[in-house]
């Protein structure tokens, strides 16, 4: 898994208030009901995020991350991957994700993300929606840029490039790649090859490799990786601000 049970998302400077939060139930295009977590800011900034978690689904870390985004002005939805095989409900540390992970179909994840986007835009008309994913979710986030969801951009932390490559020619939104220099899940050669394919396809992307940082460095509770986490957070805010203006 990406984050330990002690991991915490970075804090927000000068945080705003969260107007509402909690678990919700969404319905995918194929009729599957799945659990999501929603956090709505008191003062929205015109940008929203669909958060694609790691292999654990709607785990407490990602619920806390949705709150951090809402404190920064972003309506946020964390989607759970496992409605089709594990049913509804949040995922705690006892959740046995392995058998359900093996049954994931990328196009079904995209359908679930479409439902999350529809929820955000229905609740926040005119919002520019971005996807933000971690590990497994990072790859799915990059892939969603080619799924026809009307995203303003797609962000991935230490993602799995192979998940996006079948959608490469369809990518129509800019990507942000936030990569760990010491990633144990994906090699630097694989990340470099992915960037080469994006270059060859003429796709717009930005990237940052945090040299020496491990997979799952985005942990504001870690003294060792606190500064890197803060830098990555600033890059997310800057990327979304610039590209929200592009589609406004």
TrEMBL record:
Residues 34-242 form the Dienelactone hydrolase domain. It holds the Pfam family DLH. PANTHER family: ALPHA_BETA-HYDROLASES SUPERFAMILY PROTEIN (PTHR46623:SF6), CARBOXYMETHYLENEBUTENOLIDASE-RELATED (PTHR46623). This is Carboxymethylenebutenolidase. The lineage of its organism: Bacteria, Bacillati, Actinomycetota, Actinomycetes, Kitasatosporales.
